[in-house]
Design goal:
heterodimer; A: 232 residues; 9 helices; B: 347 residues; mainly alpha
Chain lengths: 232, 347
């Protein structure tokens, strides 16, 4: 049984038909990259998984259970974390409080938090700092940590390298690599080499449909298919 | 124009005398303590409004009506339960019980209103929320008017029987303040300061030391993100709207004893107006801003009231004009308020 399956998913924003029959399968323990040009529906796919933008047609299945139309908080509670584009920190909350929001009342917050601090030592130094005062790279680390806590088995990561300096991107990639050792991941990333470096599988989207998928092994930016769909 | 000014502002020798009196310790103490007492009342009536806007992005135009209901319900309970022979201790204890009962009752009512009326229109424009809550306020006001008239409580401006349930030591000048500063300040203002501090502390603890408070603070920045982290934001909306309603009603119970207010159908619009002034100056949705704005407005109110009482300004509406002038200045200089963020709440 796959961890996550999308079957013939159609999602709209108002009358705009964004996802036009997306099929996707994510196996437990894998890292799946969603690639494609701007506006092809990558972020919408992640939002659809979380039911933030529920599909009008098709089904989303998590651990074999249909979650289509479920309230977002219930879907998230099943073990799906989200690292959104632009990070969306709670700027007036401290680093620790940002993590606390993700952890359920029945979980041992101190233990979960310490695990995250082991993984991202920088965060421990700034634990009492408000998130709005962190650098872009630190905020991205916090966003990843916030997505991972809460017993999450699947992490949806949207454009983690966007707007970051190259040196910081390297740190974020390292953080994602460490995170991928602990959780399954769906990664939306414009930086093609970075996506291929991190992912085992890829789905190439164009105009709201999957036009190609498979193993990332041996796939390069020079491939005809990649050049056709990713070139501006 | 000159004629108006000559009526409003008194002679220069009196002005100099008033300035001299201002710097007397008893005057400064009076302005400060009475100002803080008024600030406590402004804070109590405004905090619910700012909480609801902070998380939900809803301008609750029924807020004043909830305070009015609190004032009348408090009055009914106090008048029915107390007799003219009830002692001061009994009156204070009963007042605290009434505050607790009305808070619980109105929190439940507010939660039910959120589920039944407000929730179905979250996805519509803010105008729907304004019209709905304003309509609820008008309905409650008319209901209060009908019931008060039928019971012979109105048409007098305020329901004096309810206001007279205040113990004598709170309606009379405080002996402690008299002894310390040699000035006469109603005991009620000391009571209001204590209650305001307690309430501010309780709300602060709720927001900063409980998990639900954390969800509310996070939700006031980005409710969708909070939902995506596994928190049922709709439930938080219900809790906050309920708490906002309960706090408004508690404010009403205090106004029942306030010498400047008292139970009246006019509370609907008056409370709404002053609560809005405080939260706009402080910054919509900001706890700290509401607290500081309440102090600014309270001190300004107290100072201008003193100016009128000493005769330096003969215009009785000076406190109101000053408070709304502060609002205008805030809107021009810092439209988001002292501690407001440019965008807050929303769905």
């Amino acid at each position: 049984m796959s961890l996550l399956e999308l079957e013939d998913v159609h999602t709209y924003y108002g009358e705009s038909h964004i996802l036009q029959g997306v099929d996707m399968t994510v196996e437990e323990g894998s890292v799946v990259a969603l690639i494609g040009r701007n506006g092809v529906g990558k972020t919408t796919t992640l939002r659809t998984v979380l039911q933030l933008t529920p599909p009008r047609e098709g089904t989303v299945t998590y651990r074999g259970e249909d979650v289509t139309g479920e309230p977002t908080h219930e879907v998230a509670d099943r073990g799906i974390g989200w690292v959104p584009e632009d990070r969306r920190m709670f700027g007036y909350l401290t680093v620790e409080e940002n993590l606390r929001v993700s952890v359920g009342p029945d979980q041992d917050f101190e233990a979960v938090r310490d695990d995250m601090f082991d993984l991202f030592p920088d965060l421990e130094r700034f634990r009492e700092k408000e998130a709005r005062n962190l650098s872009g790279g630190q905020q991205q680390m916090l966003a990843i940590a916030r997505g991972m806590v809460g017993d999450n088995d699947l992490l949806l990561v949207d454009e983690p390298s966007e707007g970051l300096a190259p040196l910081i991107v390297e740190q974020v990639v390292e953080a994602l690599r460490e995170a991928s050792a602990e959780t399954t991941m769906v990664l939306v990333e414009q930086n093609f080499p970075l996506a291929m470096d991190l992912a085992d599988q890829f789905y190439l989207l164009d105009h709201g449909t999957v036009v190609e998928s498979g193993s990332t092994e041996g796939v390069t930016a020079e491939d005809e298919m990649i050049r056709r769909y990713l070139s501006a | 124009m000159m004629g108006l000014l000559s009526h409003a502002v008194v002679d220069a020798p009196l002005f100099a005398d008033a300035v001299g009196r201002f710097f007397q310790p008893d005057t400064l103490a009076r302005i400060l303590i009475e100002g803080l007492g008024k600030a406590a009342i402004y804070f109590i009536i405004a905090i619910g409004l700012t909480l609801v806007f902070g998380l939900m992005g809803i301008l609750n135009f029924a807020h004043g009506a909830f305070a009015m209901v609190g004032a009348y319900l408090g009055g009914i309970l106090m008048v029915v339960a107390l007799s003219s022979t009830s002692g001061a201790f009994t009156r204070i204890v009963f007042f605290i019980v009434v505050v607790a009962v009305i808070f619980a009752l109105m929190t439940a009512v507010g939660s039910a209103l959120e589920i039944g009326l407000v929730r179905p229109i979250y996805d519509r424009t803010p105008m729907y929320q304004i019209l709905l809550t304003f309509g609820v306020g008008l309905i409650l006001e008319e209901l209060a008017r009908i019931i008060a008239s039928s019971q012979g409580i109105q048409p007098e401006p305020t329901w004096t029987a309810a206001r007279d349930t205040i113990p004598g030591f709170l309606s009379a000048p405080s002996e402690i303040i008299q002894g310390l500063f040699g000035t006469n300040i109603r005991g009620f203002y000391m009571f209001a300061i204590a209650a305001g501090i307690l309430l501010a502390g309780a709300v602060w603890l709720f927001l900063n030391r409980t998990l639900y408070g954390l969800y509310i603070r996070a939700g006031s920045e980005d409710p969708e993100m909070v939902e995506a982290l596994g928190v049922d934001v709709r439930k938080a909306f219900t809790v906050v709207f309920g708490l906002g309603t309960g706090l408004a009603a508690v404010g009403g119970v205090f106004l029942m004893w306030d010498p400047n207010w008292g139970p009246s159908v006019m509370l609907n619009l008056d409370v709404l107006l002053y609560a809005f002034v405080v939260v706009v100056i402080g910054g919509l949705g900001s706890f700290k801003g509401t607290l500081i704005a309440a102090v600014i407005v309270g001190i300004a109110d107290s100072f201008t009231t003193w100016l009128f009482n000493t005769g330096i300004v003969a215009f009785s509406g000076l406190p109101e004009v000053t408070i709304f002038l502060l609002l205008v200045i805030a809107l021009i200089v810092r439209p988001q308020g002292l501690y407001g963020v440019e965008e807050v709440g929303g769905h």
